[in-house]
Amino acid sequence: MNANTRSTALNELAPDNLTSLALLCKGCGDPLRLEVLRTLKTASFGVLELCDIFDIKQPAMSHHLKVLTKAGAITPRREGNSIFYRRVLADTATPQGQLLTSLYASIDQVPLAMTTADNIHRIKQERETVSREFFDRHADQFREQQELIALFDQYAGNVEDMLLQTDPQKVHTVLEIGPGEGAFLPTLSRLFGAVTAIDISKEMLEKAESLRLQYKLNNVTLLCADTEDAVQQDMQFDRIVCNMVLHHVPSPADVFEDCTRLLKKGGTLVVADLCHHDQDWAKQSCGDLWLGFDPEELTDWAHEAGLDSKDSLYLGLRNGFQIQIRRFDKL
Q1: Across the strands, what pairs with 198?
Q2: What is the Cα–Cα distance from 293 to 286, expressed in whole angstroms?
Q3: pTM score, whole prediction
Q4: DSSP of 205-236, one letter per residue?
Q5: Rounded CA separation 299/212 (Å)
Q6: Could you give the 3-state DSSP secondary structure of residue 111?
Q7: What is the pLDDT of residues 265-288, one digit of tens each?
Q8: pLDDT tens across 166-214, in order?
Q9: Between 3.30.200.20, 2.30.330.10, 1.10.230.10, 1.10.10.10, what CATH number should domain 3-112 receive?
């Protein structure tokens, strides 16, 4: 390419690229906005939650979020009647995406202030309490409520098939996160030598225990715990299964981080969950915290946690929902 051709190409590309880069630099050029971006590393928050985290009034926080959104650093998403903000998934094929990726990498090296970290933890605990109380109250109607969205039989066979592709052995251990009534436990008991299932709802665990006794699943252990508890107890597994659970948890990205710590080297996480949808009645009727997820979100969370995205399967349901079944391997 000669000098004239190179100059022409730069003149054609520079205006839009430089405008976007300048907007991103200007929008992020504020310490509080950088703190907000840092806070959104592994979770989505609403404006009132961010006001609580940083102890500032809503008009001021709304202004900062508007600037960051216009700059292309964060994106809003409606979840029922609420709007949550998360980081933009940077497209590294563009100059703006490359700058955004570098910015994320830089600010993520800065530890959260203790007060900020404590406030984030408290908000996540409040979300978990809401979820736990819902399932404790509605344990007797669990199957009926869940079948409003998806019948267990509509996806269970595909989850088993994806597990079979990982060559499960009787010497392997498996963890199921959120077993519900325990419908998938007989399958796991048959495929693996030792099965551990954790749930935050004691009422749901009682139902799973009844099923365990009914089918004499002697290699199954049930624990009232979440993935953070399991990490703290230094548990290790060859496989982890998470069926229709992520849309109930306070911070799905944290689950991926915990699963990386819980998996042995070469282990596999299999996730079945809803693709993003707009049927907000699921929040009230089924206790959903999130209206599903874009596949790219799960891939990004897994990558950030150190997991490699492998096989994917998508099932369309007649009621308008779509289920994604994903496999992620720990290298």
Answers
A1: 177, 223
A2: 16
A3: 0.84
A4: HHHHHHHHHHTT-TTEEEEE--HHHHHHTT--
A5: 33
A6: coil
A7: 999 999 999 999 988 888 888 888
A8: 999 999 999 999 999 999 999 999 999 999 999 999 999 999 999 999 9
A9: 1.10.10.10
